């Protein structure tokens, strides 16, 4: 039986939880009270039918993208395809690599269009779309293991930094990864771009090692768009040299994406080691080493 | 309960909770991480269920937006969460306070919900099976895996009734019988299919909210009415298109030309002669033995219930329709020169009326009501003065729910209630090896009423504290169930 979408205000009275099937959004807006309410309403309205629209084109969205692959019709689906298209020439990728970011973007766009807001975010399970009016900023926390969240760093994102999307990918997360990174966090211009790039860079953090357990994606989830491709299920303790090799491989990929203007910055985490690349004009990613306090707000997994 | 059986591909189940329609492998969850294939059953993984009262739950979001103009930005009314007893655990001995005594504010009144999973040694299920097919004589033993777990009880409209479980089968009939009884009623309560055999009767596959399968045949329709009622309902549509109609029914077989409805229309006498016992004109009892053939009788050839036509009245070419009460079986005859009925193809004009009979039959279902008595020591977990809880329930000051679902509290002594198991969240029922069933039960009342009946006030926990506690899982309130904290502001519960 189709469950209707769930819409509710969280007990803090500020954040809204929207849930429909696999879509789980936490959003928050700042501005005049009437504007905030209008934004909440717009978000709820945008959510209505969004999943159904995506599912109508699910077959296209789960198929590899290439110059000749079918083009979807829906707005969110079109955005997903556009976000992954730059990677199509390098190998296998499907629009699903950008689904979380594209959904977050779409809901945020509806909120911003409905009312003037100072700041807003839509967090779709760690893939976050941001809105920042001039002079505003967000401080975001970074975590390396979505399964046991603890703050390992934070990033100050200011309106002038040109970052409106944050995404994280890793093999512990809900989506599968071909690589061994615990987490790769990407800052990009838009959430869908960040989402696609996080997948690509996380896949690139990798090395040949007999101890790494990889299994066909469809043996774990028959619906996976990755089919029989091998996804990471376990990574043994690696030597410092092995960690370096895997991280270097990912950094190389991230550097290429920064040079091509596809992302702004990346932070790669593997077994307690963090490497960062890319910088904002005025605020480099400030890394804080392992802290135990779990992230309560704006954490992304 | 899902409306239809889930679609399967090998051992994978297709989840229909959202349009993604994941195929889920055994032991795995869908894309949402909320639904799981648990050994072939699609279940929501909710160890301790807290119902969420979403705004206009069950209605599309559009409706909610239509009146968004006066919306105050709150997406859910305060008091939108109700802690069910599912997974709450139970206490032994019972005089300890129930595991969760929760207070919350609803419409400005402090409400208390006492939540516990009751161990019901006194419990069973009443099963209504929408079929005219004879499942077995009344009082016949009903067996699961060979053990007697209940009996066929008095029949009801269009339905055969089974009474299963109860204290005598659970605890009075030996170890094996107790275990089989417990297993069978537990499965029925949790929405699983159970095969039951009736002594001197049929084998029937029963699953709450699903059509019954009698002797391997899926029962699709419930009868439109008894044979006589069917004549009354369709006489006008048959008049002028056919000379005679016989509606075969194990209880009351109807004959158009003799029936009051036929007389009023001026249907001619046909000289038809029926077996069985005439009750009133056009209404016959006991035309055949009960069975799984036409209209709940043992009839395979409908002509077997007719004597020869009266040659003084009948005429060659006389046309006759014979039909069962569900329209499932039907045959059309014309009399030859010797006044013998000869089967012919059904004329188009009559085919329409046969379809109409079928169309007017409701889908046949098996429905399962859990019945349990909470009159015993379970009440001590709620209050220091157990009988006051019973009185409070009778006085309608205390509202009883089972996993958040509305219950019918049987009048008289004790708190014996019945609940439609399909309105309780899935897998809410459990068992203890005693054997006895474990079922959720919640008592909701005003704080002052709770104090008045000697409640365990020192064990009250505010709702927020329970919500923040370990392991609670949230689940939307099932469509159609009134909200437990405000049962009166909802539409009247069906039943």
Oligomer: heterodimer
The tally of helices of chain B reads 9
Point out poorly predicted stretches of chain B: 46-79, 90-99, 487-495
Estimate percent helicity of chain B: 10-25%
* Fraction of residues in β-strands of chain B: 25-35%
Using DSSP, what is the number of strands of chain A? 14
Give the gist of this structure.
The complex is a heterodimer of chains A (301) and B (495). Chain A has 301 residues and is α+β, with helices and mostly antiparallel strands.
Explain this structure to me?
- The complex is a heterodimer of chains A (301) and B (495).
- Helix content of chain A is 30%, strand content 26%.
- Chain A has two domains: 1-133, no CATH class; 137-301, no CATH class.
- In chain A, strands 1-2-3-4-5-8-9-12-13 form a nine-stranded antiparallel beta sheet. In chain A, strands 6-7-14 form a three-stranded antiparallel beta sheet, with no helix packed on it. A two-stranded antiparallel sheet of chain A has the order 10-11.
- Chain A has 301 residues and is of the alpha+beta class.
- The model of chain A is unreliable at 280-301 (pLDDT under 50).
- Chain A is built from eight helices and 14 strands.
- The radius of gyration of chain A is 18 Å and the shape is globular.
- Chain A starts with 5 loop residues before the first strand and ends in a 14-residue tail after the last strand.
- With 495 residues, chain B is an alpha+beta fold.
- Chain B has an eleven-stranded antiparallel beta sheet. In chain B, strands 8, 9, 26, 27, 30, 31 and 32 form a seven-stranded mixed beta sheet that branches.
- In chain B, a hairpin with a 2-residue loop joins strand 11 (141-144) and strand 12.
- Residues 46-79, 90-99 and 487-495 of chain B have low confidence and may be disordered.
- The interface between A and B is large, with 34 and 42 residues.
């Amino acid at each position: 039986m189709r469950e209707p979408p769930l819409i509710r205000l969280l007990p803090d009275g500020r954040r809204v939880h929207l849930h429909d099937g696999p879509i789980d959004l936490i959003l928050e807006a700042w501005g005049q009270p009437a504007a905030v309410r209008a934004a909440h309403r717009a978000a709820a309205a945008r959510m209505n039918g969004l999943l159904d629209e995506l599912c109508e084109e699910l077959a296209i969205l789960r198929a590899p993208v290439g110059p000749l692959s079918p083009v979807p019709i829906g707005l969110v689906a079109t955005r997903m395809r556009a976000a992954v298209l730059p990677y199509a020439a390098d190998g296998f990728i499907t629009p699903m690599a950008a689904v979380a970011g594209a959904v977050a973007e779409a809901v945020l766009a509806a909120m911003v269009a409905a009312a003037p807001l100072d700041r807003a975010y839509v967090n779709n399970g760690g893939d976050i779309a941001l809105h920042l009016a001039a002079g505003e900023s967000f401080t975001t926390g970074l975590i390396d293991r979505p399964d046991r969240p603890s703050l390992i760093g934070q990033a100050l994102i200011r309106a002038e930094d040109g970052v409106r999307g944050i995404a994280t990918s890793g093999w512990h997360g809900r989506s599968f990864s071909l690589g061994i990174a615990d987490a790769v966090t990407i800052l990009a211009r838009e959430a869908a771009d960040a989402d696609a790039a996080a997948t690509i860079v996380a896949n690139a953090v990798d090395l040949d090692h007999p101890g790494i357990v990889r299994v066909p994606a469809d043996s774990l989830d028959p619906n996976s768009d990755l089919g029989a491709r091998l996804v990471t299920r376990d990574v043994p303790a690696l030597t410092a040299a092995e960690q370096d090799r895997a991280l270097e491989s990912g950094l190389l990929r991230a550097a290429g994406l920064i040079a091509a203007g596809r992302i702004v910055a990346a932070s790669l985490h593997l077994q307690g080691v963090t490497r960062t690349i890319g910088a904002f004009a005025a605020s480099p990613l400030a890394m804080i080493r392992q802290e135990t306090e779990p992230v309560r707000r704006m954490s992304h997994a | 309960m899902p409306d239809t059986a889930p679609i399967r591909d090998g051992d994978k189940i297709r989840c229909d909770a959202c349009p993604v329609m994941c195929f889920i492998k055994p032991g795995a969850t869908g894309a949402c991480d909320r639904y799981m294939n648990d050994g072939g059953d699609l279940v929501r993984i909710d160890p301790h269920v807290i119902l969420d009262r979403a705004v206009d739950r069950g209605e599309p979001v559009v409706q909610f937006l239509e009146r968004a103009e006066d919306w105050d930005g709150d997406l859910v009314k305060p008091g939108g969460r109700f802690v069910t007893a599912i997974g709450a655990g139970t206490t032994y001995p019972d005089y300890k306070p129930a595991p969760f005594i929760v207070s919350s504010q609803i419409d400005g009144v402090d409400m208390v919900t006492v939540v516990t999973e009751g161990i019901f040694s006194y419990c069973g299920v009443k099963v209504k099976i929408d079929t005219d097919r004879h499942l077995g004589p009344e009082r016949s033993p009903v067996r699961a895996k060979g053990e007697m777990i209940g009996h066929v009880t008095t029949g009801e409209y269009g339905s055969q009734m089974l009474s299963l479980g109860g204290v005598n089968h659970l605890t009075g009939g030996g170890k094996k019988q107790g275990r089989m009884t417990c297993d069978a009623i537990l499965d029925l309560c949790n929405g699983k299919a159970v095969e039951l055999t009736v002594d001197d009767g049929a084998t029937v596959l029963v699953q709450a909210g699903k059509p019954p399968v009698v002797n391997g045949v899926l029962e699709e329709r419930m009868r439109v009415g008894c044979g006589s009622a069917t004549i009354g309902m369709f006489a006008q549509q048959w008049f002028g298109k056919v000379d005679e109609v016989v509606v075969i029914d194990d209880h009351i077989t109807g004959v158009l030309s003799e029936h009051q409805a036929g007389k009023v229309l001026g249907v001619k006498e046909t000289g038809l002669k029926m077996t069985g016992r005439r009750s009133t004109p056009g209404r016959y009892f006991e035309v055949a033995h009960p069975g799984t053939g036409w209209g709940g009788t043992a009839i395979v050839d409908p002509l077997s219930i007719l004597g020869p036509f009266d040659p003084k009245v009948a005429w060659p070419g006389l046309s006759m329709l014979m039909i069962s009460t569900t329209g499932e079986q039907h045959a059309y005859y014309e009399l030859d020169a010797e006044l013998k009925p000869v089967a012919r193809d059904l004329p188009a004009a009559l085919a329409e009326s046969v379809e109409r009979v079928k169309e007017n039959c409701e889908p046949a279902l098996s429905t399962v009501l859990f019945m349990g008595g909470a009159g015993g020591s379970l009440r001590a977990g709620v209050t220091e003065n157990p009988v006051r809880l019973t009185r409070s329930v009778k006085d309608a000051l205390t509202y009883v729910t089972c996993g958040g679902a509305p219950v019918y509290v049987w009048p008289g002594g004790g708190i014996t209630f019945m609940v439609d198991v399909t309105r309780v969240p899935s897998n809410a029922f459990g068992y203890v090896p005693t054997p006895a069933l474990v079922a959720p039960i919640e008592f909701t009342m005003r704080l002052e009423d709770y104090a008045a009946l000697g409640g365990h006030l020192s064990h009250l926990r505010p709702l927020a504290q329970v919500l923040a506690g370990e392991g609670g899982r949230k689940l939307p309130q099932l469509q159609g169930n009134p909200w437990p904290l405000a049962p009166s502001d909802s539409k009247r519960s069906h039943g």
